[in-house]
Amino acid sequence: MINRFFKANRRAFKSLSEQEVLALAISSEEDDARIYRAYADGLRADFPASANIFDEMAKEENHHRGLLIELHKKRFGDQIPLIRREHVSGYYERKPDWLVRPLSLEKTRQMAQQMEAQAERFYHVAATQVSDADTRKLLGNLAIAEAKHEHLATELTEDVTQNAAEEESAKEHKQFLLTYVQPGLAGLMDGSISTLAPIFAAAFATGKTWETFLIGLSASIGAGISMGFTEAAHDDGVLTGRGSPIKRGLASGIMTTIGGLGHALPYLIPNFKIATAIAIAVVFVELWVISWIQHHYMETTWGRAMFQVVLGGSLVFAVGIIIGHA
Q1: 3 state DSSP class of 187
Q2: For residues 102 and 242, is the Cβ–Cβ distance under 8 A?
Q3: How far is the C-alpha of 158 from the C-alpha of 160, rounded, in Å?
Q4: What is the per-residue DSSP string for 239-291?
Q5: Nearest Cα to Cα of residue 182 among 120, 216, 222, 227
Q6: What is the pLDDT of residues 143-189, one digit of tens each?
Q7: Out of 64-68, 133-137, 246-250, which region has the weakest mean confidence (pLDDT)?
Q8: How far is residue 276's CA from residue 291's CA, in Å, rounded to a whole number?
Q9: Which residues are CB-neighbours of 224 under 8 A, at least 6 positions away?
Q10: What is the largest CA-CA distance in the chain?
């Protein structure tokens, strides 16, 4: 409701004077240069070559800003009206993704290309709204420049040496492993294996599918919440470089819940024997998936991965059956 109120009080773009169009262009170039510098600062520690790319893009935006200011001084004097993109209805907005740390290299490049495309469209529309020849010429030239700069990140990336590109790619892959794969794998293993005993103990003790499902559901969600909070709370990622604790907590919590629900959901089937047979089959699939993730992402040999997962899972599964028949 509040956002709608403020948006309703924005100026329509068509109502802007030529001076205000220039002022809007100046403030937009200032904002974009600031965002590109923030991208460069956020990437500099891990991706120095790509940080240089965004330093260059910030310089380009500052050059555009200088051209616009000179034209404004020539036509309207030194006093530039304070008008920004949030004051104009229908004007594109910049999401605060550039404030998030750590920055994703690929996403950052994609956002930069989107920024340049939006700026190009703005200059095309703005050029049709002014009648002064010099102003129209400059806005048209900037539209052409932005169209070329839309691919600047890609073009400049080609100038990065192969070794630097490979090094940056390796760092980004390592960050992906630390932030998502490791916590997610730990959660999947915990959810799949730790819930085997209570679910199958309940199944064989009661012989009832609905009660078994409820126990499996509660065990899975409870384990997911516990693992998620534990992962997020025990390491803020500052010293270890493992990334956002919220992302790691979500990865761990969600995968823990999925791991437990895999062999709990079959007990929604009323027939106990069929539900149990499917649940056991799902357990073997889960153990194979865990082994595959360990082998594919963590470079664990197939033999070692299968031994660790199958041995642990088999022991817990056996405990559940024994207790269920007690």
Answers
A1: helix
A2: no
A3: 5
A4: TT----HHHHHHHHHHHHHHHHHHTTGGGGSS-HHHHHHHHHHHHHHHHHHHH
A5: 227
A6: 888 877 656 655 555 545 455 556 666 667 777 877 888 888 888 88
A7: 246-250
A8: 23
A9: 187, 191, 253, 254, 256, 257, 260
A10: 92
Task: Kindly provide the residue ranges of all beta strands, DSSP E only, lying in the chain, ordered along the sequence.
Answer: 11-12, 88-89
Give the C-alpha separation, 304 to 324, whole Å. 30
Tell me: do 17 and 97 sit in the same domain: yes
Domain residue limits at 199:
164-324
107 and 198, same domain (yes or no): no
Per-residue tokens: 282: 């799902």
Q: What is the total count of domains within the chain? A: 2
**Which residue type is seen at 291?**
S
- For residue 283, how far is the Cα from the chain centroid? 31
Of 160, 186, 214, the domain-final residue: 160
- Residues composing the chain: 326
Q: Is 132 helix (H, G, I), strand (E, B) or coil?
A: coil
Is 169 in the same domain as 136? Answer: no
